């Protein structure tokens, strides 16, 4: 829909320029840096409009080209960061597994140590001295 409106507005401007050019068919001097020539005003108007359109189109295409390059660069950057995130997620999962394995080993060694040394922990209730007696 946007392109249709753009085309319609462009056609309206083209018609206005054409009518304006047809009304002004007189010969006018065109001053160049190196000389002067007489051209019909219609050619001067249409030539100026054409040069303006070419300049505007070149700015649009340059902007489009730079935005396309920027999008490609950012897409590549996002893909690299996604790969880094995936790798870091795998690393975290691996480290969590290692932690769980080490915790299991630690608990097993604690049990083995208590069995080997026959360590009996003192009864906590007997060792607590009430605050009133102190």
From TrEMBL:
Keywords, ordered alphabetically: Cell membrane, Coiled coil, Membrane, Transmembrane, Transmembrane helix
Ranges that cross the membrane: 7-25, 37-65
Gene3D superfamilies on file: 1.20.5.340
Record flagged with keyword Transmembrane helix: yes
Coiled-coil ranges (or none): 71-119
Domain Lipopolysaccharide assembly protein A: 24-86
Origin superkingdom: Bacteria
InterPro entries (alphabetical): LapA_dom
PANTHER family: MEMBRANE PROTEIN, MEMBRANE PROTEIN-RELATED
UniProt protein name: Lipopolysaccharide assembly protein LapA domain-containing protein
Taxonomic lineage from the root: Bacteria, Bacillati, Bacillota, Bacilli, Bacillales
């Amino acid at each position: 829909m946007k392109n249709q409106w753009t085309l319609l507005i462009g056609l309206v401007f083209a018609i206005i320029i054409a009518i304006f050019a047809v009304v002004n068919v007189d010969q006018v001097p065109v001053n160049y840096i190196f000389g002067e020539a007489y051209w019909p005003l219609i050619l001067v108007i249409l030539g100026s409009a054409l040069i303006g359109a070419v300049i505007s189109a070149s700015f649009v295409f340059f902007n489009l080209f730079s935005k396309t390059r920027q999008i490609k660069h950012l897409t590549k950057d996002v893909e690299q960061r996604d790969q880094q995130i995936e790798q870091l997620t795998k690393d975290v999962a691996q480290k969590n597994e290692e932690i769980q394995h080490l915790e299991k080993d630690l608990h097993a060694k604690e049990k083995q140590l208590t069995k080997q040394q026959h360590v009996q922990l003192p009864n906590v209730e007997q060792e607590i001295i009430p605050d009133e007696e102190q």
